[in-house]
Amino acid sequence: MALKPLFLLIALLLSGAAFAQSPEAPISSTAERLYATARPRLLQIRTLVSAAGRQSSLGSGFLVSADGLAVTNYHVVSHAALEPKTYRLEYAAADGARGALTLLAIDLANDLAVVRLDRSDVPFFAFDPRAAGGELAKGERLYSMGNPLDLGFTIVEGTYNGLVERSYNERIHFTGALNPGMSGGPAVSAEGAIIGVNVAKQFGGDLVSFLVPGRFAATLVRRAQEHPAPAGMDWHAEIGAQLAHWQAGLYEATSGRGFRPVALGPYETVESAAPWFNCWAHTNAGQVPKPRASADITTCNSETRVFVADDLVTGNIRLVNAYFRALELNQFQFAAFVSQQSQPPWPGSGDKKWRTPQRCHEDFLATAADGKHPALRAVWCARAYREFAGLYDVTVTALTQDSGREALVSRLSLQGTSYDNAVSIAKHFLEAVQWTK
Amino acid sequence: MDEVIWIEVLGRHREVAARHRVGASEVRIGRGYDNDVVIDDPYVAAQHLVIRRDEAGALAAYDIGSANGTFVEPGGRRVETVVLDGDSVLRIGHTQLRVRDPRYSVARERASERPRPVWPSAVALAVAIIAIELVSLWLKETDEAKFSRYLQPPVILAGVVLSWTAVWAILSRIFAGQARFERNVRIALVGMLAYSLYNEAAEYLGFALTWRALAAYEYVAFWCLLAAICFFHLREIGPTHLRLKGGAVAALLVVGVGMQTLSQSELRTDVGQMNVSRRVLPPMLRLAPVSEEGRFFADVERLRDKLDHDRAETPTGASAGDTGD
Predict the structure, then answer these.
(1) pLDDT for B196-223, tens place per residue?
(2) By the 8 A CB rule, do B310 and A364 touch?
(3) SS3 state at B176
(4) Which among B280, B283, B310 has the least Cβ separation from residue A356?
(5) Is the minimum CB–CB distance between A403 and chain B shorter than 8 Å?
(6) Count helices and strands in chain A by DSSP H and E runs
(7) What is the C-alpha to C-alpha distance for residues A295 and A287, in angstroms, rounded to an integer?
(8) I need a labelling partner for B125 at 20 to 30 A (CA). Which of A28, A331, A399, A401 fits?
């Protein structure tokens, strides 16, 4: 079975917290010294249900300017950004001080937010200039801080392991234990300067954690200082605009990297040559009882996910190329088998909050009459994002219609894409399906 | 000469419940025992009616002073005196009467013929339905064939048809006096075969010609067939009131189709419109020519307008409180 590269975001809903105690790492004297200076600069960021005045989720943050600006993760403040009437933000400092927070700026793609405290003249962290230039060496000690599981502020020692390879959104690979509640906390060098911001850990891995590079945070802080959000800002519009901008960049970069041909049986199709696509193969050859039709399936995932809300993570591109061949099935049975594999996704009625109901269009088409391209049954299904104009989820499924005994099923699933980008990439994929003969 | 008058007491459905032969030129009818025909109906007067010939020689009924009166069907007119032909029905109290004399001419005898047995055709229909179901099941088989799966369609068919027919047979026994089980079975089977054929045709033509409407409106076909079956069952009970029965069946059809159309449209607003064929078939069965790629993408563009319309139409999430600028 393929390794499922799922990210576990660290924002912690207390109701769902699992209090798994891990053995404490030995704390070096550097850590001791760092924590002593960092302590007044650390914050716990709480999201409160306004009506009840109780916390609904917790994260961490850190001060970056004397006038009270702090950086945290967007996913730590997402409730307050999306539903300002229901939720409000509060900070708790290490000395027990509490107060209100105002959201000033967000960077959706890098999961960052800048907030303002209701006080000034505070100590703060500086950004490490080396982090911006990528001058850090693999193996350098990093110290991550935050408030895991609401147990109190902690400092965790770990190592810098460069940028995550083949990731579209730049992330630092940090080998150290990040736990829920530490989201938005700082990761600093031995000198105490910001290298990155805690953001996620790999589900199913040990000590595999991720940081947002500090330069994105520095940029966002500058933006917040120059153009702070007005009071009563509509973050929905801002999120929609950032999503649209981000997906435009992703599709441009993906097309720029081009596509490479893949042969599957007598067919040829393409997959993206962009390095951020992660491809896995799957076959039913070993299945018992012996399968009556063979299935060879390649799944490529862009792993480009953007957190918008607890129930909306978007931005992924997925391409499945599957070659099926009848072994012991007649043509009708094989067609039934292929139908099961090529039906469009049937969304449940649960996701009405973010997306419109799905609409589909089906047709039988020929991309070129040159004898090289088989006829296709193509199904296009799309849903619009209710609050983000111009963004859609699109799934295109193509099934070759040239033989009753073998078939290629290609499915392209695009999340949070503009319609034009979806059409242009789908066109490319439909036209790429051909015979190798 | 001896005059003979027949007095027939009718039941609720105008069947003859009792027949009295009176060998006199005048017949007295009432509840009292001084009458020629005694009627045990508390709403009938002790001396209610007299039947005798009028000046013209026709039989006539004379109400002799009852409180509740005498009525003539059809129409239910209250009368004091009425001239009778052999078919007019008198109502006194809650009792219906018919008066005939020996000159009343009856219809010709019905030719006696041995009815053709119904069961061979019913068996043939059942075999056809089961064959279609089993073949269709086998053609969809993608795993190893399990015998139990192929046993299901005949058992389900038998259960459904027998219980459905039993209901109609009982109704028929109550209202027509005969169960007519075999004929009712045949009606149910014809309906099922038609539905089964429709479904297969919808699937094959839907794929061959991209006629998805056939499958989308399958439920309309279902209700039409159900209504037709009900109509024929009702006709089997009795060939009268066909217009009323047709009306009742049409009402059933309208209610059924209306209800399902409503629930389908609600489902569409809930989870969206698939508009996609449920099953693909071997490519060799395609009849319609393939579309141009450009046309496909033009249709896809039109879909965008619909989606944008959906987005505009539905209220934004409860969270969208503040409006920007």
Answers:
(1) 999 999 999 989 988 888 888 899 999 9
(2) no
(3) helix
(4) B310
(5) yes
(6) 7, 25
(7) 10
(8) A331
Nearest to A322 by CA among A417, A170, A433, A159: A433
Inform me whether the pLDDT recorded for A3 exceeds 50.
no
A7 in the Ramachandran plot: left (φ > 0), alpha (ψ -120 to 50) or beta? beta
Q: What is the ipTM of this complex?
A: 0.86
How far A320 CA sits from the closest chain B CA (Å)?
Answer: 19
Alpha-carbon gap, residue A345 to A343, rounded angstroms: 6
Q: Which of residues 169-228 of A touch B (CB under 8 A)?
A: none
- Give the pairing type, strands B89-92 and B70-73: antiparallel
Q: What is the pLDDT of residues B98-121, one digit of tens each?
A: 999 888 888 888 787 777 888 899
- Name which of A35, A120, A130 is nearest A70 in CA terms: A120
Contact A353/B317 with Cβ under 8 angstroms?
yes
pLDDT of amino acid B314: 60
Question: Across the interface, do B290 and A366 touch by the CB < 8 Å criterion?
Answer: yes
d(CA A344, CA A397): 7
Q: At what angle do helices A235-257 and A74-82 cross, to 10 degrees?
A: 130
pTM for the whole thing? 0.81
CA pseudo-torsion sign B298, B299, B304, B306: positive
Residue A350 confidence class, pLDDT cut points 50, 70, 90: low
Helix H or strand E encompassing A393: strand A392-400
Average pLDDT over residues A109-131: 91
Six-digit token string for B181: 């089980």
Q: Tell me which residue in A232, A389, A404 faces B283 most closely, judged by beta carbons.
A: A404
> Judging by DSSP bridges, how do beta strands B49-53 and B77-79 pair with one another?
unpaired
Instruction: Note whether B321 contacts A84, CB cutoff 8 Å.
Output: yes
* pLDDT tens profile B173-191: 988 888 889 999 999 999 9
Q: Of A170, A215, A180, A186, give the one whose Cα is nearest residue A200.
A: A180
β pairing state of A98-107 and A87-93: antiparallel
